[in-house]
Structures are given as C-alpha cells and as structure tokens.
C-alpha cells in the first residue's frame, strides 16, 4: 500500500488524492450496515442537525463499535498516511458525517488544522484526513469541495462561527476564499460508495447542504503523526483524542474477517472524556 | 421564434427546455450591469437573506427599471410562451434572484403553480417560468435542480414553510420527492451567462445554497395565459401582479436599442400594491 512518486507529487501540489472504488462493495456494505445503530444512539458524541432529528456527526465511534475499530487499523490508508507523514500515526479524530438526505446542512470553508492548532495545540500540520464514502457521492448530495493547492499557504486567518450550523467551526473569510479560488478553482471528487479521499490538514474545504433524497454518509478519520500529538485538552476527548498510541495495521481483510480489537469505551464514555480538561479564557 | 415539434414534445415529457447561450454576451452584459442599482435599493420588493445584508429576491423590477421592462417584451421567450400556452400572456411575477456568493441560501423543493393556485387562485397551470442566467452557472454556485417529468402529476401536496429561509414557500414533503426522483432523477442545467430555461409551472424544482465565491444572479419571469389570470389578490401586487394586459413583443434587438416602454411604478410603488387586498383567515 505504498503511494507512487507520481501520487506523492500530486498530493504535494494539490493537497489531496482521490481513490475511486477503493473499498469493495462487500467491505462498504459492512461499514454502511453499522451506521443506523450508531446514529440511533442518544449520546453526547452524536451531534444532531439544527433541523430534523438527524445526526450531523457521530464522534469516536471506533472506541465502542468493533467494525469501526477494525477500520482504523486498515493498511489501505494507515500505510499511505505513515508514508506521507514520515511517522507512525494515531487517531486524532474519528467521525461519521451523516449529510442526511434533505436535512444535511452546510460545512463552511475551513481548514481542519486551523482548529487543531488553535484549540488542541497540535504543533505542526503533520496530520491528515481520510474520507471514506459509504454512499455514492454525486453533484446533488453535498459532495466535499476542495480548493486545490490551498494547503500550501499554511494556516489562514479564521473566525469562530458558532451560529450557522449546529457545530462550531473556524471559518475562513470571503476575501481569502475568493483569492484562493482564483488561484486553484474548486473541485468536488465524486464516485461510488467505497471511494476514498486523502487530504492535507491545511487543505481548504467545504460542503453544501444536501437537498437530494440521497444520504451522503462518510467516515472521516484524522490521523496525526505520533511525534506531533496535541498538547492541550481544551476540547472533549471524544472530539480530540488523548490516546497517542501508534496504530498497528491489521491485515488487509480486517473488515471481512474477525480480529480481536480493543473497545475501551464499549461500556460508556469515561466522564473525563466528555469535557475539556483545560479551560482557556 | 417558434419551438420545433421536437422541442414541444420534449417540454411535454420533461417539463423544461434549456437554451444555452441564448442571449448574446452584449445583451447579458446590459442586464447584468443594471443589477447593482436594483439590489442597492431599500424597498419592500427587495427581500434580503437571513444572513448577510444581501438580496435574495428583487420583485417587480420591470415596473420601474427600463432595461428590465424592455426585457419582458422580448420575442425570444414571449413567442415560445404564447405557443406553449396557446394564448397571449401577461407577467404574473417578475424577480431577480441573487443567489449571492457565500450567502445565497437554499430554495426547497416546490412547484410554483402550487403557490399560484393556493394563494392567488390561478385557475389552471397555464403559466410558465423563464429563467435567464446573468452569471455563469456551474455545479458550485447553487444551480436550479429539476425533477424531470414531475410536472405531469399536477399539483402535489405541500406545506407552508415560513422558517427555513427568509421567504415563505409551499414545499413538498420528503416522501413525495423520493418517489418523484426514483422516477425521473434530478437534472441541473448549467451553462454560461445568457443561457435560458423555460419550465412548466408544475415542474418540481429546488436549489442549494451557494458557498462558492461566484454570484449566480438570474432573472425569473412567470408568464401566465391572459385567459387564466389570477382571481384573488391575497399577496401584494408586487409579488403577484394584478395587471393582466397582454405583453406585446418588441423587436428582437430590444435590449440593444432604445424603445419607449411604460414604467408605471417609476416614482414609487403604489400603496395598494404593497399589501394583500383580500385577507384570508
């Protein structure tokens, strides 16, 4: 599972790599079948949309669900991430984003590393995102939009938006977005369920609302270089993990066969992980 | 400016016709240049978005602006509309929709004729829409989405949504949309400024929010068969016009050369047109 030099070059220039049909239909079906039981849970980790009783984001699912715990050990993205980050990695954030049919709301233009630095004191942008499509993604169900090359500018100024959606976000102002788009345009990778995107922690991205009757569920993993772990626990542990244990890969069939995995929160989320441990004024 | 039998057949089946590059760059530039002075006005006819001091819809612009008054006499859509509706037509509604970069909000799934019947007591669906692009429309700036063939089902049940956006709308429920999309899919015609869409008053349509840095300004004209004029003045006259005078075409160069046109509201909107004349419980 090594990236080619051509892929490494493209990642460097564009800030992302798209792998259509990367997980098989069988693997994707196993992941997808586990989503309803996750979304049905009433727990703090499940953030709901402003409108409708519909899950926007389910955090930290790998801590209690065996299928998603197996997923995070998958060599098909752990090895490329190690290669790009030149280090072992740990899970900084795990989420399943619903982007539900009709109710899925926007994510405004942002960089993930902006938040990781501002809130979590992550030293460098040596962390990246993995998006795995659990539904077909088309132009109508709110695909991820990227501004290619925007990751090369490092951390951009951002403002904390706590009102637009149900989840607060550090968003980038309009003037900056105009400049970035003039330079790099906008792309929105589309493809069948099972496709995967790797993207840089500084790549500026957004997604529109989903007015279509098609859900657009995706798993988002943020993998951080172990040597670059966060220094501040301002956010709850289920949003910004405090366990920096390097991920060891399972075999490539880890979604199809049973492997024993640890499920530390399977009997409930520890109280200390539900809140910030360090309040900042 | 006659539609071919092939076009008439397609309109019957799909509920819309798309004409890319229908107005020249020069004509489109003239229309586009007049928009800022319209949007800058503080008048009741200009409905602003919930977020940002940005115009969502400017109604009745043809009553006071010579360029847009000339536009409504254009044979390139008046003649096709007369052909499709088998009657002379009048302007039932005129609007410029901003769908502004960053702030342009969604329009949920709806049929225009549903509102025209429920609120305005328009007897039959013998009215149609003309959308003229004043900006390039692409997948990122909130294009109009249609469910092809949905017009053949007549008026569908709808609920009055007064909360989602800044403009109330009769919206169609999710179950119905699922069925319609299973049957007909979704299309979103895209093309350069100057393109035009003709669509049936019962065609179900929507548009997502515009997160891109590109405005997507369009003119929307609703032309009603004169014999099918509205019977109830519940809504203000600037939203549902009460002047049923048949449109007479100007020559094809009416955007490029000066023709004298009447501007009945050029000195201000008559008080009686700013409110509903018939309150319904």
Give the structure's gist in a few sentences:
2 copies of one chain form a homodimer. The first copy, chain A, is α+β, with helices and mostly antiparallel strands.
Order of helical and strand elements of chain A: HEHHEEHHEEHEEEEHEEE
* Structural class estimated from helices and strands of chain A: alpha+beta
Oligomer: homodimer
Number of contiguous helices of chain A: 7
N-to-C terminal Cα separation of chain A, in Å? 44 Å
User: Helicity level of chain A, as a percent range?
Assistant: 10-25%
Largest sheet of chain A: 7 strands, antiparallel
- Overall geometry of chain A: globular
The tally of beta strands of chain A, per DSSP, is: 12
Low-confidence stretches of chain A: none
Structure commentary:
Two copies of one chain form a homodimer. The mean pLDDT of chain A is 94. Chain A is globular, with a radius of gyration of 17 Å. With 281 residues, chain A is an alpha+beta fold. The first copy, chain A, contains seven helices and twelve strands. Chain A is 22% helix and 20% strand. Chain A has helices at 5-14, 25-33, 35-39, 66-71, 75-85, 112-120, 174-184, and strands at 16-19, 46-48, 55-59, 89-97, 107-110, 127-133, 144-146, 159-161, 169-171, 196-200, 205-207, 218-225. In chain A, the strands form three sheets. Chain A has a seven-stranded antiparallel beta sheet with strand order 1-10-6-12-4-3-2. A three-stranded antiparallel beta sheet of chain A has the order 5-11-7, with no helix packed on it. In chain A, strands 8-9 form a two-stranded antiparallel sheet. The A-B interface holds A 51, 101-102, 106, 108-109, 139-140, 142, 145, 164, 174, 177-178, 181, 186, 188, 206-213 and B 51, 101-102, 106, 108-109, 139-140, 142, 145, 164, 174, 177-178, 181, 186, 188, 206-213.
């Amino acid at each position: 599972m090594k990236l080619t030099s051509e892929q490494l070059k493209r990642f460097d220039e564009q800030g992302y790599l798209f792998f259509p049909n990367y997980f098989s239909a069988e693997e994707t079906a196993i992941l997808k079948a586990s989503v309803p039981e996750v979304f049905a849970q009433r727990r703090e980790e499940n953030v709901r949309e402003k409108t409708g009783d519909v899950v926007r984001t389910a955090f930290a699912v790998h801590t209690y669900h065996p299928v998603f715990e197996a997923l995070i050990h998958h060599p098909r993205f752990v090895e490329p991430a190690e290669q790009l980050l030149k280090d072992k990695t740990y899970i900084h954030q795990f989420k399943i984003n619903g982007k539900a049919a009709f109710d899925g709301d926007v994510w405004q233009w942002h960089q993930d590393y902006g938040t990781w630095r501002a809130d979590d004191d992550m030293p460098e942008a040596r962390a990246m995102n993995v998006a795995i499509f659990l539904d077909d993604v088309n132009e109508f169900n709110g695909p991820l939009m990227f501004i290619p090359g925007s990751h090369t500018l490092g951390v951009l100024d951002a403002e904390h938006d706590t009102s637009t959606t149900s989840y607060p976000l550090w968003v980038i102002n309009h003037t900056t977005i105009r400049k970035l788009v003039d330079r790099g345009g906008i792309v929105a990778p589309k493809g069948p369920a099972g496709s995967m995107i790797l993207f840089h922690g500084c790549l500026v991205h957004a997604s529109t609302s989903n007015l279509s009757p098609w859900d657009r569920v995706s798993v988002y993993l943020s993998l951080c270089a172990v040597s670059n772990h966060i220094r501040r626990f301002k956010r709850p542990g289920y949003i910004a993990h405090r366990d920096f244990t390097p991920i060891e890969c399972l075999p490539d069939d880890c979604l199809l066969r049973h492997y024993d995995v640890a499920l530390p929160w399977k009997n409930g989320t520890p109280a200390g992980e539900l809140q910030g441990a360090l309040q900042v004024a």
